[in-house]
Design brief:
Blueprint lengths: L25 H13 L15 H8 L3 H12 L8 E6 L4 H7 L4 H15 L3 E4 L1 H20 L10 E2 L4 H9 L3 H4 L8 H16 L7 E7 L3 H6 L5 E2 L4 E2 L3 E4 H10 L35 H14 L9 E2 L5 E8 L2 E10 L1 H12 L7 E5 L21 H13 L9 H9 L7 H7 L18
Parallel strand pairs: 1-2, 1-4, 3-11, 4-7, 10-11
Antiparallel strand pairs: 5-6, 8-9, 9-10
Helix pairs in contact: 4-5, 4-14, 6-9, 6-12
Main location: nucleus
Keywords: Nucleus, Phosphoprotein
GO cellular component, one term: nucleus
Length: 451
């Protein structure tokens, strides 16, 4: 029942947890000594089959192309009572993969991907950017509130981003409530999209949520685990917010199985959640490889808390390119200090500093994958499982060229706050757009890692 990855004997591996060997406090040494000795590689420590219970493993196994085709085939049969409305939501960080891989513009990639999915029998194809709008806006508001309460509440600051399921799973299963209490309660874009599709859209279409089969196309396998969380399930309708997650690479596998090339697919405009409207050109949020929580929250906090209008953000790389900080100065004093920590070496070092009481940051955008979401293990990988660096460089170029749209300027979002969520400060906003994170006590019979 130990982690299947633990017996890595190559001491020359630079990605092992050498960063943890210099513990100078007994608490940190006790917690991480076994980890260091076991040679668990930080790139391996999430979502391997030994990190999951048997039940989780069985449910994750169902989130594959076979389940997708099972629903498609069910819809082709005569028993209409069992038919499902098939909706697919595509993450913004997946589109550059399709664009770079097939040498298309990002707008062409979105429309051709939509055309391909609809040719299979999918009814609706959505862009999850609107869900990220909600997630960023709620994260902005929560940070300002936490900052204002920082002297009254011990765990108000720092605040950690909550969009990465790999980081969330690690925090809940391995770290203590000392860490989980700092995680922003705003749902990830994936799960907010689930609420939008199974809640708002289902009501617009006069459908019961369980009559919709909702698939998310994402860059990362950990999104499959996120979809299984109990708090993302509506017991009343026996329906999860997200029924199935397919990685970008799995969609390409379907294309290969069907012997279809993206360049041969007819372009079809992406659907929107609103009546018969269609999406326009692809837009993104600030941030080079992710949804840009750091940049949006930083600019919002500078304006709300200090009356400063920040136009451009300057990143300062620290120990490596995946750990960078941003600061705001006013009257010669540093009033905001944010960081981006990508990859588990940086996350481990960040947690150690927090435990030692040497943590200087007010907010950290935490992502499990080195290089951020574009480098998710579900896309841009070579056949031997290593990052395809040439393709990744193309993807970054495609992504940074996409126009930025501020969440505050999305009129649909503002209207939905009033018409669907009953105002920005309503209980429905808390119930629909937020969740809670806490340390998980693992049973001795589960197949989880023994740290």
């Amino acid at each position: 029942q130990e982690c299947s990855k633990k017996q890595k004997n190559d001491d020359t591996q630079s990605t092992s947890v050498d960063a943890l060997s210099s513990n100078d406090g007994s608490e940190e040494k006790n917690e991480f000594d076994t980890l260091a000795n076991a040679k668990i590689l930080l790139s391996d420590c999430l979502a391997c089959d030994s990190c999951m219970t048997l039940e989780e493993g069985a449910r994750v196994f169902q989130q594959n192309q076979k389940e997708f085709f099972r629903i498609l085939n069910l819809n082709k049969k005569c028993d209409t009572s069992k038919h499902k409305v098939l909706a697919v939501s595509i993450c913004p960080q997946s589109l550059p993969y399709f664009a770079a891989k097939f040498n298309l513009s990002v707008n062409e990639a979105a429309k051709r991907l939509c055309g391909f999915l609809k040719s299979l029998g999918v009814h609706y194809v959505f862009d999850t950017t609107i869900a990220a709008d909600f997630s960023i806006l709620e994260s902005q508001r929560e940070f300002v509130q936490r900052y204002q309460r920082r002297n009254q509440e011990e765990h108000a600051l720092p605040m950690f981003a909550s969009a990465c399921p790999g980081w969330i799973r690690y925090a809940e299963r391995v770290l203590t409530n000392l860490v989980t209490s700092h995680i922003c309660t705003a749902k990830s874009p994936q799960q907010i999209m689930g609420s939008l599709v199974k809640g708002y859209f289902a009501r617009q279409q006069n459908l019961s949520p369980d009559k919709i089969f909702h698939v998310v196309v994402a860059p990362c396998y950990d999104k499959k685990l996120e979809a299984l969380r109990e708090d993302f399930y509506t017991a009343l309708y026996n329906s999860p917010e997200v029924d199935c997650v397919l990685t970008s690479g799995e969609i390409v596998q379907i294309m290969e199985q069907k012997n279809v090339s993206m360049k041969d697919v007819t372009e079809v405009a992406v659907d929107s959640l609103f009546d018969d409207l269609k999406e326009g050109d692809v837009v993104r949020h600030d941030g080079k490889r992710s949804d840009g929580y750091l940049e949006h929250i930083f600019k919002h906090a500078a304006k709300e808390l200090f009356g400063m209008d920040v136009k451009e953000i300057t990143y300062k790389a620290l120990k490596n390119k995946d750990f960078q900080e941003v600061t705001l100065e006013k009257d010669g004093e540093t009033v905001l200090r944010f960081a981006a920590a990508y990859g588990f070496r940086n996350i481990q070092n960040m947690v150690l500093k927090l435990k030692k009481g040497k943590f200087l940051y007010h907010f950290v955008e935490v992502l499990a994958c080195p290089g951020g979401c574009l480098n998710g293990k579900g896309q841009a990988q070579t056949e031997d499982g290593k990052p395809d660096r040439a393709l990744l460089a193309q993807m970054e170029e495609v992504y940074t060229a996409i126009p930025v749209r501020l969440p505050e300027t999305n009129l649909h979002v503002q209207k939905m706050y009033q018409d669907w969520l009953e105002g920005m400060d309503s209980k429905k906003v808390q119930d629909t757009l937020h969740t809670t994170y806490s340390a998980v006590n693992q049973s001795t019979s589960s197949l989880d890692i023994k740290w």
